[in-house]
Specification:
Shape: elongated
CATH topology of the domain at 338-542 and 608-638: Methylamine Dehydrogenase, Chain H
InterPro entries: HATPase_C_sf, HATPase_dom, Ig-like_fold, Sensor_HK_TwoCompSys, Sig_transdc_His_kin_sub3_dim/P, WD40/YVTN_repeat-like_dom_sf, Y_Y_Y
Strand content: 35-45%
Structural class: alpha+beta
Signal peptide: 1-19
Transmembrane segments: 755-775
Domain Histidine kinase/HSP90-like ATPase: 898-993
Protein name: Signal transduction histidine kinase/ligand-binding sensor domain-containing protein
């Protein structure tokens, strides 16, 4: 029992929050083993180390492997470089980031991917040790004929020390440095202590002093308290584990520990002061404060022969054996089985009391009080058997459901039975609770007839027994809970929730739920929590809401629930234990769409929440105990392990179109790159499955992509250009490396993706658009000319008709009138009338001839538009006091007659309006012959009213007519006016539509901007 108490002390002493806790049993640690062939490890491991970049390195008989937490990758050197041999032994990761590799052909160093081989070095060098100043020293264990004890490793050479410097312990197979600055070397001759610049001291080891050379010091270590340890790979008197005390080396012994039994192959003092011992035949041991702990092949160690032990940057412990690699870390949830001192490998229930005692129910009942675990007996000295349920009431009494009996522990005494309790064969106590009046209620099930009973107990006497099968059917009452309104709640195994109050049963359908109830709990607000396979239902004042995956929980299948009274509720589910704060739950209750922040403790953190009959129980110091089918578990919310190391993030592999590409800065990928895969890793080894990543490809992604645990990124059909791939990661506890790592690369363009090709394509497109425009303009001009020709033919026909009809009639009328006048001798009045008739007919003849001339050809004769406008200006001057100036720009070109006539009519109307209405002193008319024909008529008069410009003058059609004529020719018409600047009429018509010969030579296009204006006034 004393040994059992020592074991329990390891469990229940207050732990520290980081690294592998020395107070936790080795069998309670999280252990993972990679055996040869697992995760890519294809060689027999020899040693393990870690470099400053975070990678774990493993030496094997088949080369060097690199581990990122998920897979082992065989290391390959750069082209033209290689290690001296693939048969490797010791490894050491130095402070400067170098990795030193011991081979059967000497020493090599790997730094930044480059290999340097030390010339003239011994075979199988090592082991290595780094002194306080960063100097690296190595042993000479594999060089059988080498007289040196150890060598200092320089940048490019080795400086060895041996017999010439006073060393008697040559070919040092083990070494270490102590806190006082001494170097220690162990060999077959003994142990030497030395500071550079002094003569070494030789200290004899009893088992080596006989000089037989049958064994040698194989490992050494120095702890933070200054103690120096040594080990021989041989057990027996004077051998095994040695400790230096008062200047002498002796076998280490302590209560329960005999160092002579160990065949020591490796030693490691961890950062918490514990000493780890690897043996050649019994696996792994650890000594903490004089207490011994063991973990062997029977517990899952990859092999009983330990070759080396290593502690990484996150304080995880690595063990190398010939058959694999083992890793140890802390669990958040500790298990307590027979291996750790429990009385059984089966757990039914757990309870606690105010004194801090923990009661463990299994096939018997045990009390853990402080450091002592004892089996409890009843007042008749009998062991309690088949303990199914434990419950502590408000008076700190322990109620015990043992088989078909109910016991009470009060005043440190267990009463044999409650008076009147219906004990009987085939029954068992399924559940116990206490209501608000302090009555005890027990659910009793009979396995024979499946009848259920509800027992009410007051003052340790049964006062009521209710058969419930007639009401709820033949189903087990899985759970009981006090009802704030009085009575109790009953959770049934098939048909949901019932209320028992004032002697009456009532079925309660909370939020439509009517299925199996796993457990019940009343919280501090008086609300009822219903634990179901579909989630956790909170039922309060007639309202029911379900806490499920939709609310942020990891799964729905509930098992139990516990309120720690310190601001958190603990939800036990089949997928783990979940902690949620009361403030989060309050926000969720107010807004069901709110997500709770769930801290999940799953199997990766030791949780096995397959609870049996019992409820979780809490000790005064805050530890929460629970019982599963196989073990008892405890979680300490005040001392949860926390990984505070941000994970180094590395890019491991770049695959382009199925081919591996060497990672380099400013990487240039092949043209026509279609598929890119980037493999990355975060070097966190505590729970690598919990590492979360996010990445972004600058130049392609606008936002970060959260990918969870995925360690690959894929991109297809990237456009040519520069890119930067950036990836960050967070470890298992959410500590993040936001800087991460990045890789810059460029996807070069193919010839058809280059800038010059795009510019050429754009130019070609513009040329095509230009010629399409010219073609369309020419078609428009051709259509317009056809319309002009049709109008001209029509006017010619009309002119012919006028000549043959109207003009002949008018001329005949004039002749008749003239003849009548010559022969008429009547009165003066008749003569005067005839004179008038003659005058009218003469005028009609003149006008008809003018109309005939206008219809037969353009009103502008001889293609002289400028001359015609001069005549219009002369008529204007004769009727108004205005100065008119007419000018041209460019070479005057021949126009189509109809177009010329339309331009003339527009100009005529504009000039006439200026003379008649503007009151201007000056009038300017400009004709510009360029690619487009421009007509501008401008005066300095009083302008035109805004309303007239916008809507025209009632009964007048001058402005509308000018606009229609311009639009008819495919041109534009604009007029602007103000009282200060006068009126400007501007008409622009495409040359293709107005000129007889619209084609232009390149010379005309180039010269045109420099042509001057010719004033024709």
């Amino acid at each position: 029992m004393a040994l059992l108490a020592a074991v329990l002390l390891l469990i229940f002493a207050p732990p520290r929050a980081q690294s592998v806790e020395p107070t936790t049993r080795l069998t309670q640690l999280a252990h993972r083993a990679w055996r040869t062939g697992d995760a890519g490890l294809m060689g027999t491991p020899q040693a393990l180390s870690q470099t400053t970049d975070g990678y774990i390195w493993v030496s094997t008989e088949n080369g060097l492997y690199r581990f990122d937490g998920m897979r082992f990758t065989k290391w390959t050197s750069l082209p033209g470089e290689s290690l001296p041999s693939i048969s490797l032994w010791h490894l050491f990761g130095a402070r400067d980031g170098s990795l030193y590799v011991s081979t059967d052909r000497g020493l090599a160093r790997i730094r930044d991917g480059h290999v340097y081989t030390y010339p003239g070095g011994p075979r199988w060098p090592g082991p290595f040790v780094e002194d306080r100043d960063g100097g690296l020293w190595m042993g000479i264990s594999g060089a059988h004929n080498n007289p040196s004890a150890l060598c200092k490793v320089g940048e490019t050479d080795l400086t060895c020390f041996g017999k010439n410097e006073g060393f008697s312990c040559v070919r040092g197979a083990a070494n270490t440095t102590s806190t006082d600055g001494f170097l220690w070397v162990g060999s077959a001759e003994g142990i030497c202590r030395w500071k550079p610049g002094t003569r070494p001291d030789t200290e004899l080891v009893p088992s080596l002093s006989n000089g037989r050379g049958l064994s040698s010091i194989t490992s050494m270590a120095s702890t933070t308290d200054g103690e120096v340890w040594a080990g021989l790979k041989r057990s027996g008197q004077g051998a095994g584990l040695l400790r230096r005390a008062n200047g002498h080396w002796t076998c280490y012994t302590a209560p329960g520990i005999d160092g002579r039994i160990f065949s020591v192959s490796a030693l490691l003092p961890d950062q918490n002061g514990a000493l780890w011992i690897g043996t050649a035949d019994k696996g792994l041991y650890r000594i903490v404060d004089g207490r011994l702990d063991h973990f062997g092949a029977i517990h899952g160690l990859s092999d009983r022969n330990v070759l080396s032990i290593f502690e990484d940057h996150e304080r995880g412990i690595w063990v190398v054996t010939p058959k694999g690699i083992d890793h140890f870390r802390d669990y958040a949830v500790l298990s307590f089985t027979a291996s750790e001192g429990s009385l059984a490998d089966h757990a039914n229930g757990v309870a606690t009391d105010r004194r801090g005692s923990v009661y463990l129910g299994s096939h018997t009942l045990a009390e853990l009080s402080g450091k002592t675990l004892i089996q409890l007996r009843d007042d008749k000295g009998r062991l309690l058997e088949d303990v199914q349920f434990l419950f502590t009431d408000s008076q700190d009494n322990l109620w015990i459901g043992s088989g078909d009996q109910l016991f009470v522990k009060r005043d440190q005494r267990i009463a044999s039975a409650v008076r009147g309790f219906p004990a009987g064969k085939g029954g068992y106590v399924a559940y116990i609770t206490e209501d608000h009046t302090h009555d005890i209620w027990a659910s009793v099930e009979n396995l024979g007839n499946h009848e259920s009973s509800l027992i009410q107990i007051r003052n340790y006497q049964v006062i009521n027994r209710i058969g419930v099968s007639a009401v709820v059917g033949k189903q087990v009452m899985n759970a009981l809970a006090p009802n704030a309104a009085g009575g109790i709640w009953i959770g049934a195994s098939v048909h949901g929730l019932f209320s028992f109050r004032n002697g009456r049963f009532e079925r309660v359908v909370a939020g439509g739920f009517n299925d199996r109830v796993e457990n019940l709990m009343e919280d501090s607000d008086g609300a009822l929590w219903i634990v179901t396979q579909q989630g956790f239902i909170r039922y309060f004042e007639g309202q029911a809401r379900s806490l499920t995956t939709a609310s942020g929980m990891p799964c729905d299948s509930g098992v139990n629930i516990h309120d720690d009274g310190r601001g958190f509720k603990w939800f036990y589910l089949h997928c783990g234990i979940v902690r949620v704060s009361d403030s989060d739950l309050a926000a969720w209750w107010q807004n069901p769409a709110e997500h709770v922040h769930a801290r999940v403790f799953d199997a990766l953190e030791g949780s096995r929440p397959n609870l049996s009959n019992g409820n979780p129980a809490q000790t005064p110091d805050g530890k929460i105990w629970s019982a599963s089918d196989y073990d008892f578990q405890v979680i300490d919310p005040q001392h949860l392990p926390f990984n505070e190391t941000p994970p180094p993030v590395k890019l491991e592999r770049l695959i382009v179109d199925g081919n591996d590409v060497s990672l380099a800065q400013q990487l240039k990928l092949p043209m026509h790159t279609r598929q890119i895969e980037l493999d990355y890793a975060a070097l966190s080894y505590v729970i690598p499955e919990r590492v979360h990543f996010r990445y972004r490809l600058v130049g392609h992604d606008t936002n970060w992509t959260e990918v969870g645990r995925r360690r690959q990124a894929f991109y297809n059909d990237l456009k040519p250009g520069p890119y930067v791939f950036h990836v960050t990661a967070c470890n298992n506890d959410g500590v993040c490396n936001w800087r991460g790592t990045e890789l810059a690369f460029t996807v070069p363009p193919a010839w058809f993706q280059t800038l010059w090709f795009r510019a050429l394509a754009a130019l070609l497109f513009l040329v095509i658009v230009f010629f399409a425009y010219v073609y369309r303009l020419r078609r428009f001009a051709k259509t317009l000319r056809q319309r002009f020709d049709e109008r001209l033919q029509e006017r010619t026909r009309l002119a012919r008709d006028l000549h043959d009809t109207l003009l002949q009639t008018i001329q005949g009328s004039k002749m008749v009138a003239d003849n009548a006048r010559e022969h008429l001798d009547d009165s003066r009045i008749t003569g005067r009338a005839l004179d008038r008739l003659s005058e009218w007919l003469d005028r009609a003849s003149i006008e008809g001839r003018a109309a005939l001339e206008a219809l037969r050809s353009s009103s502008v004769e001889a293609n002289d538009l400028v001359g015609a406008l001069h005549r219009v200006a002369d008529d204007c001057i004769s009727g108004a006091r205005i100065a008119v100036s007419i000018s041209t720009v460019g070479t005057i070109r021949e126009m189509h007659p109809i177009a010329r006539d339309e331009v003339y009519r527009i100009a005529y109307e504009a000039i006439r309006n200026a003379c008649a209405h503007s009151g201007a002193r000056d009038l300017w008319v400009e004709l510009e012959y360029k690619r487009r024909f421009h007509l501008t008529v401008r005066d300095n008069g009083r302008g035109v009213d805004e309303y007239v410009l916008r809507s025209g003058k009632s009964g007048h059609f001058g402005l509308a007519g000018m606009r229609e004529r311009a639009l008819f020719m495919g041109g534009s018409f604009n007029i602007s006016s103000s009282p200060q600047s006068g009126t400007v009429v501007s008409v622009v018509i495409p040359g293709q539509a107005i000129y007889r010969n619209p084609s232009r030579r390149l010379r005309d296009w180039l010269v045109e901007p420099f042509q001057s204006k010719a004033d024709l006034h």
